[in-house]
TrEMBL record:
This is Gastric intrinsic factor. GO terms for molecular function: cobalamin binding. Keywords: Cobalt, Cobalt transport, Ion transport, Secreted, Signal, Transport. One of its GO terms (cellular component) is extracellular space.
Amino acid sequence: KQHGMIGNIYSMGLALQALEATVKFYAPRKWNCAQAFSVVYGHDYRQPMAIAQVLPALVGRSYMEAADLDCASTTLHPLLSLSPELGTTEVLRAPITVHYSIINKLQGTPFSYTTTVQVPGGSTLLTVLQEAAKENPQTFSFQTEQTSWGPMVVSIHGLAADSEDRTYWQFLSAGDPLSEGVGSYKPRDGEHIQAVFSTY
């Protein structure tokens, strides 16, 4: 994709590992290594699974070579955030406005509801969903399941995703799927997020 993204931010770690390991097989076809790594360096990874997948590419070693890695002398790129700083104080952030819609045209009685909520700047999408549910629980109630990639929304407005029906809740901004999950994605002020009941 443009700007060095390979798939989405979750797939970047595995994609970089695969491309680095097989680079000689892709000649003369080229991929922009520096551009792809700049995407990784610019992202604040917080989920253990994403960190585990991107680390081998950043240190230039595979998992099989990890036993030989001298952690004391290895320096990772400074923009990679792997552990929170201790003793920091929470900074009050100006509130932002986020428009949030839930849409179902796939199963049962169709519905489409939109609300506008205010959350502190830098909040995750999960906070937006929680605020919408707090203000109007009958319409915007939702349920999540914890996964190794963070919380996954499995039900909104009483309509649950089902692997047998191959249905799920897809989150979009300006018609494009979000590159991160609800526990990581941070909406911008004025952004319109849509949760659309979809099939795969």
